[in-house]
């Protein structure tokens, strides 16, 4: 356990040393000029222009003229272009319907249907063999771990 604390202490010291080191200047590295923006210095920001003062509205002089009546204008109807004629040949001759494929001929569907009916192809499949295999792996791992623990304590 002591060597783990030594390793953690060494890593902490290296991290502290890395944080105390100054960062290299980015202007001196080769290839960094493509990442730096060289904005031209035009002498600073100009003073903002003063906001315009709103002028007072001028009162309109009263008039005695009567405006001339305007004749109503009817909207102009625009002719829509005709749809192009379909020149492609009909994929289904004489309007007959296409027969859908038989799903029993698809291997994945056939396999799933066979497993639902309980055929003898997948008789050993299920959760139980998986659980047994996982238990065997756990026992072997526990045995090897205990054996390693005993050998570490003895030396």
Question: Can you describe what's shown?
Answer:
By secondary structure, the protein is mostly helical. The chain contains 3 helices and no strands. The longest helix is centred in the C-terminal third of the chain and has 28 residues, at 127-154. The chain is flat, with a radius of gyration of 44 Å. 0% of the residues are buried.
Global morphology: flat
Order of helices and strands: HHH
Mean pLDDT figure = 74
Q: Care to count the β-strands?
A: 0
| Rg value | 44 Å
Low-confidence stretches: none
Biggest β-sheet description: none
Give the amount of beta strand, in percent: under 5%
Helicity range of the residues? 25-40%
Structural class, from helix and strand content?
mainly alpha
Q: Please, how many helices?
A: 3
Cα distance spanning the termini: 15 Å
Brief digest:
The protein has helices spanning 2-20, 107-117, 127-154. With 155 residues, it is mainly alpha-helical.
Question: What order do the helices and strands come in, and which of them pair?
Answer:
Elements (H helix, E strand, L loop, with lengths): L1 H19 L86 H11 L9 H28 L1
Task: List its salient traits.
155 residues, mainly alpha
């Amino acid at each position: 356990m002591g060597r783990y604390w030594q390793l953690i202490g060494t890593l902490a010291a290296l991290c502290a040393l890395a944080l105390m080191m100054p960062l290299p200047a980015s202007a001196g590295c080769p290839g960094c000029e493509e990442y730096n923006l060289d904005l031209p210095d035009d002498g600073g920001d100009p003073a903002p222009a003063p906001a315009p003062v709103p002028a007072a509205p001028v009162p309109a002089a009263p008039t005695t003229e009567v405006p001339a009546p305007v004749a109503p204008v009817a909207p102009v109807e625009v002719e829509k272009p005709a749809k192009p004629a379909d020149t492609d040949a009909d994929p289904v001759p004489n309007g007959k319907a296409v027969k859908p494929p038989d799903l029993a001929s698809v291997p994945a569907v056939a396999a799933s249907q066979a497993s639902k009916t309980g055929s003898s192809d997948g008789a050993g499949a299920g959760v139980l063999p998986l659980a047994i295999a996982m238990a065997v792996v756990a026992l072997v791992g526990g045995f090897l771990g205990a054996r390693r623990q005993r050998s570490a304590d003895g030396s």
